[in-house]
Amino acid sequence: MSSDMDALALAADRLEGRSDAVDRYPTPHDLARELDPRVVLTPALSLLDQNLIDAAEGRCRRLIWTMPPQEGKSQRVSRTFPAWLLARDPDKRIAIASYELGTARRWGRAIRNDIAANPDKFGLRIRRDTASAAEWQIQDHAGGVYSVGVQGALTGRPVDVLIIDDPIKDRAQAESLVFRERVWDFWTDTARTRFGPDTVVIVVLTRWHEDDLAGRLLAQDVRGEWRHINVPAQADHDPNQGQTDPLGRAPGEYLISARGRTAKDWEETRQDVGSRTWTSLYQGRPSPTTGDVWRRQWWRRYGTPLWSQDADRPDAYRVEECDQVIMSWDMAFKDTRSSDYVVGQVWARKGADVYLLDQIRKRLSFTDTLAAFEAMVKRWPGATAKLVEDKANGTAVISTLKSKVPGIIAVTPTESKYARATAVSPVLEAGNVFLPEKAVELFDPEELIDEAAAFPNAAHDDMVDATSQALAYLLLDQTGAHAWIAHYRAKAEGTTTEPEPQANEEPPADDASPDLDPYAAMSEDPAVIRKRMRDARFRGQP
Description:
Elements: H1 2-15, H2 21-24, H3 28-35, H4 43-56, E1 62-66, H5 73-88, E2 93-98, H6 101-117, H7 119-122, E3 126-131, E4 135-138, E5 144-149, E6 159-165, H8 171-175, H9 177-191, E7 195-205, H10 213-219, E8 227-230, H11 263-273, H12 275-282, E9 300-302, E10 307-309, E11 317-319, E12 324-330, E13 342-350, E14 353-362, H13 366-379, E15 385-389, H14 394-401, E16 408-411, H15 417-429, E17 433-436, H16 445-454, H17 462-477, H18 480-493, H19 526-535
Parallel strand pairs: 1-7, 1-8, 2-5, 2-6, 6-7, 9-17, 12-15, 14-17, 15-16
Antiparallel strand pairs: 3-4, 4-5, 10-11, 12-13, 13-14
Helix pairs in contact: 3-5, 4-5, 5-6, 11-12, 15-17, 17-18
């Protein structure tokens, strides 16, 4: 009897032109909890609710929401929000699009079933003559839901609210330019033509590629109408640059999970999926396959360890048959566990080739930085020079350790990060820089490859800085420059033996540095050649 009275009261409210749902369910979560008491509310979903309410009430007409997979974003946006919206305004014409019709249709079916099974909560009924999962309408109203795949059509269907939920299915589709163009064509030729002046668009997705739908919409947002909220699995903002986390987390703090994932679970996920997938799917910052400065295919690999365990010191490594072993350090900005990473690397040079042996990349306080520095020195006693960029905490590290640790060299950069990276790019392009294969790695080299591929647009560039510092010292500024010049002389004479390309790797181009004439190395002073290599192509770059 009570439910009948509630339904009558809701019907009366409809006749009076207002919806009781506004008072009963002020947020989408309130409705979700009413339909299923097991639904949880996390800070991320609470923030999502606020943005959905802004969209419903006209304060935001274009919303892009990016978030790690399996954290409740699709349930909230593609199931609860349309039902909540129709409860408030049953004349809203809603379209849901996904990478295929079947996925979009499942959301349409779920919304329809929620409304049909709960007339006391919604005060709505589904028209019997348009009640399919893919297309249905509210009885006595214009509103309803139409489901479509990105290869489908919306012809003849005006849209008040468009929800695009995961227009890309997987990595294969993301890497396909043909499919990305298909998604973009759906937006420009199909979806956009259905809009009225007040149409609301919500794009919710996991990022796979920098050129996905979200990437293109943001790149072409000349009117500044898109609101983009990216919630990374781990807060990676930089307070020193005025950046903030959308959830107010401290740098390094993990997402409170709707599925109950702990910090340990997030760490294991990060290790299992690899750096590239973690950066794109979980952090929402996909990096390009081909970097702007250092391309992925330029990195070479080595599969035989260049080190052995020290017989007298089990915790130390001995490097053999190398001409030079150094360390390169990029320090954080503050004596706090801020967003800045401390990066320490160990490099070895054999002739004109350099090999990254070890790397540490952590958020460290000043005290922990000193401990990490000394631990790395003990681990690699053969590293003679220890390069430390003389800025941020680097200055204090140099001052504190120079009397205890021999070989610390202060490096004062005189050019921009971009100029320093481009100055050593011919070294990578020529195939002279090697990273370890998985069987012999002491760290994850994919982190460096991904950061380099996204440079200079990545959230962080600490590893790039440390690497360009090491390469400049080993191959452009020191005796290694003579080896590299000799390498080019021999290459010009056709006497070098090039390393075999790895699987799925493009060999370095023979014309790696068009401004470097290998024949000139026979007659010119090496210092002049080094200066030309570093400056001629890249001086004046931003």
